[in-house]
Amino acid sequence: MDKRTILCEKNSRSQKQARLEDHGHSAWLYLTKPDSPVVVADCWIYNRIKAPLESEISKFKTSSPPAVAGYAHPHAEFTPLQSDIFELKWSPDGRSVALLINGIPFGFIPPGAPRGYSKHLTKSGPWGHKWDEKLYNILFKESGWSESIPGFF
After folding, report:
1. Can you give the residue range of the structural domain that contains 10?
2. Where would a tag sit more exposed on the chain, N or C end, judged by fewer CB atoms within 10 A?
3. Predicted TM-score (pTM) of this structure
4. What are the phi and psi torsion angles at 65 (to 5°)?
5. Does some domain include residue 17?
C-alpha cells in the first residue's frame, strides 16, 4: 500500500502544519516548521500489521516503520474503518498537536520534542514516548495551561 495522507491541517496561530499519514504498515502524525513543509517532529500512532520483531525492521525501507514487538502494545494493530472519525486537536498556542480517533486521543507532539507520545507504546524508545496523561492535560486542556512547561521551552 502506498503512503496516504488521511488528515492535514495548518494552525492559524503558529502556522505549523500537522498531517496524519498511513504508510500501509503504520500510521504517523507529523508536525512541520511554521509556513514550511519541513517536518520537525513525528508521532507513531498505530501499526496496520502485527508488530514485527526488531530483527525484521530492516525490511521496512522507510523512515516511518511500524513499531516492533516489545515497544508496541499488543492492541496497537489497528485498521481504520470508513466510519472512524480522525481529528486534530491543537494546543492554545498552536505549537502542540494531538490526534484523536473517534474522540479518543491516540498520540500527541509537544513543543520542542522531535518524537511524540503514543497511547500504544509500552515503553519509550525509537518510536517515541510512552503516553503521559499529565503532559497531555497541561498542553490540551484550557484549565492548567501555562506558557512555561519545564523542559519544553
Report:
1. 4-140
2. N
3. 0.88
4. -80, 165
5. yes
